[in-house]
Task: structure prediction
Amino acid sequence: MTDPVTGVRDRGLAPGGIRRDACPLCSGTDLRLRLQVGGRGLLECNACGVRFTDEYAEGADVASYYGTVQAHHGKADSEDQFAAIARIQADAMESIAGPRRHGRLLEIGCSRGHLLTELEVRGWDVNGIDVAATSVTEARGRCRGEVWHGEPEDCPFEPGSFDRIAMFDVLAHLPHPVRTLQTVSSLLKPRGQLVLSTVDEAWPLVPVFLKAFRALPNRLAAVQDEMYEGQHYCYFSHRNIGQLLGEAGMELAATRPLTPLSAQLFVHHYPVKRRLGLLAMRRLDGLLGSSRKMLVLATRRA
Ligand SMILES: [Zn+2]
Result:
């Protein structure tokens, strides 16, 4: 298999073309440039701390990009790996949201339907949404529940339909995170739960890496690719995710560090130096109780 370093780089940048000159969370315009990512600026909002690219795309452009580049593309490449990822995600969801295994569950960004299938086996009545047509076709063949092709804002599900919504590794890819989470909130029953995973930009090692990337851009290009994937538009953190959820009509219930899938499943495919680096980072995270990724639980306000 391709090593994950090459795999991540081969995905290329998510589409751009629309300039962003205000914060996607608080609309603040007091911004500073923190880093260059593939020719785009990574900006930070001085008011709320959210970091985001100075360019994004939406609608059909985003859908056609994810029609080619699917979830975990370049890293996972076998059915066994996708099934392993689904079990890890289902276990993570139960660990933060409770062991419930009945009711209606929606997965946003369901890709090819591996997690939907795992959750269906565990007892949930599942539905999915994805912007990539090819993924949706495959997901429909994999699970019994209805899978909608399109964006959450246009989906046909009735407001207040779902006991739980899962959104793994989707938030950072959204062009309009507040608007999409408002839709998520409206689709939940009162006190319904949202479980999501995303990058935690308040990871204690981020300031160290930002300095290093600016000082040694060429030598650390592969590490930067892994930390700031060209597919991401927005980087939230455990410090400001509550503000985002509040804007959308939800309450933050819990955040916790989540071991990145790379460290669990793909580390043996890395070149030796990278592998040692990643393992050293995991040791440090173990000591600090931190992780580059976080798992988040929110509830819709009653
Ligand atoms: Zn802001």
Q: What stands out?
A: The CA atoms of residues 2 and 74 lie 7 Å apart. The two ends are 48 Å apart (CA to CA). The longest strand covers residues 188-199. Residues 23, 25-26, 28, 45, 47-48, 50 surround zinc ion (CB under 6 Å).
